[in-house]
Amino acid sequence: MEFVWQSDDSAPLSAICPVCADPGPHRPIVVIPHSGPKQADWTIVQCPSCASRFSTDREGADYTPGALPGGALLEFYVEQGAGLRPMLEPLGWADVSPGRRMLEIGGGFGFTSDFVQVALGWKARGYDPSGLAALGRDYLGLDIVLDYWTDDTPLAEPYDVAYASEVVEHIPEPAGFLVSIRRAVGTAGVVVLTTPNGAALHPSTSPALLAPIASPGQHLTLFSAQGLEQALRAAGFQQVRVEERGATLHAFASDGNLPAPRPLSDALYRDYLHRRIATPGLAPALLSGLRYRLYKEMVNAGQAADALALFASLAEDVATRFGIDITDPTALRPPVPSDDVQQWLARYPGNLTGLLYYRAILANNSEGDPGAAALYTAVAALAGAHMRRVLQNVGMEDGETEVLTSAAVHLHLLALVCAGADSAPLLSAVTQGTPERGLMIPVSDRRHMRRGLRRDLRAMDHPDSLWRTARVDVQGDELDLLAAILGQRPAAVRIEAWDRISEAPDSAATMEAFRAIWTLPDADQAPTSLRHARKLTLIRLVLLGAFHDADALFDAWDQAELAADSCVETALGILAGADLR
């Protein structure tokens, strides 16, 4: 998907803003060629009054069952694509309250309705005409009406909560929708909305977020925070709160009191996942997706033993469904590229990147096995890039996979260093790469990769930072370099500079080897390497009996805390007993 960003002097367009009714003219923000209905260019303009962005095409998409992709793509949604936790975050304030009632509009598969019923004891009803909603109704046993919510939809009594996540941006005339959803909650209920933040439609936003925000042919209105509040008040709500959460807006509206903000309870979320996983007869992709989300929670909470046990179940499922062994890192192989998304998802689970990335965290942090972590992260990153590429071929993206691919590369580099291997070639390839090719890592992540690795190595007091983060000439691209490591554990590569100090025949050679390190490019960015060089030099001078040179080096030493190092302490003890006359 190509984004052609428009300059400030682009010809303005006349159109009525769907948020505030400003007739314009409106400045074009971006044109996305051949991405609208019938391959027309998709143009998005910005309203000068409310700062919302909207498409000049107001036709709206068809969300009936036949209009949605099926098969592997639906399985991908439940296994990976559905951002379950982000869906539930706006309801963090909600308590366990049996008897409360929630209306969910456009909820698709219905995960949010399922959560409030299973975890909170509420009753939920959904309205959504899509095939995804029909699937959720059958898989989860939900009360979903396969139809649109409209002004004419029967309403026996108001709901306590009306929830519409990522819905209002799809509607050609959002003002009417907001009025109709206000009807659903009466005078005391609360409306909860999420929608893309129009301000995030910007060249600096990562590609995996830009595509879902723009969604040509589907997202007709991209509200600003100001515009969404204005629209809700125009719909008649007395109390309105709009929160900017990065690329998403959360909105709360009511004629009564608004709930105080509160994050989603980790305990409630995990309890929901545990209980749903225990449900007999779940479809394999759904069970995999629920297990994977709980597995992430366990890893992030430091529950290594529980996470490893759950990974064993996930790995067994992957072996059964796809014939792939993900338990032995040395058996992992590069994913087979494909241009066809259905073919790719028939070969690999949609959450493969996350499965292996979080397994690498366990290997590195809990099992002390950086070599295994390097292998897991190599395949995680390769799988992430290949999957994003095939998703893009059908106009889709997955923001979490983009984030996890970058994180996997960072952890891979760190694990290589901890395993004694050379990370500099891959690091140089990544920092020189572009977001459109190779691993498809965003520019900002590539720019910060070296700095981030240096920061982590400094925190670990790792002596090899200067060489492992060096800029080197690269032979081969980042995909080839990652794939080349697979099949065996990373080979350790000695730092020759340390050997030159430790094997120096005399004081002059020792000091020459020390000065050679001090004058390397970016030496000032690697304090742990310089500190280790001082340590080795002091010890070597003492071993050579060059006590005067050792004493001079120690006197010039401006980091007295290194004297606490046991090897340095021994050398200083020898030096103290030496005759320096």
Description:
With 581 residues, this protein is an alpha/beta fold. The protein has 4 domains: 4-55, no CATH class; 65-254, Rossmann fold, CATH 3.40.50.150; 317-484; 496-576, no CATH class. 46% of the residues lie in helices and 10% in strands. It is built from 23 helices and 12 strands. The chain has a 7-stranded mixed beta sheet with strand order 7-6-5-8-9-12-11, sandwiched between helices. A 5-stranded antiparallel beta sheet has the order 1-2-3-4-10, with no helix packed on it. The longest helix has 23 residues, at 370-392. The termini are far apart.
Average pLDDT rating: 94
Lateral arrangement of strands in the main beta sheet: 7-6-5-8-9-12-11
Q: Looking at this structure, what is the CATH superfamily of the largest domain?
A: Vaccinia Virus protein VP39
Task: Tell me the count of domains.
Answer: 4
Radius of gyration: 29 Å
Write down the CATH class of the largest domain.
Alpha Beta
Strand content: 5-15%
Low-confidence stretches: none
How many β-strands, per DSSP? 12
Sheet/helix structural class: alpha/beta
Shape assignment: elongated
Determine the N-to-C terminus distance. 76 Å
Fold-level CATH name of the largest domain: Rossmann fold
CATH architecture of the largest domain: 3-Layer(aba) Sandwich
Largest sheet, in brief, is: 7 strands, mixed
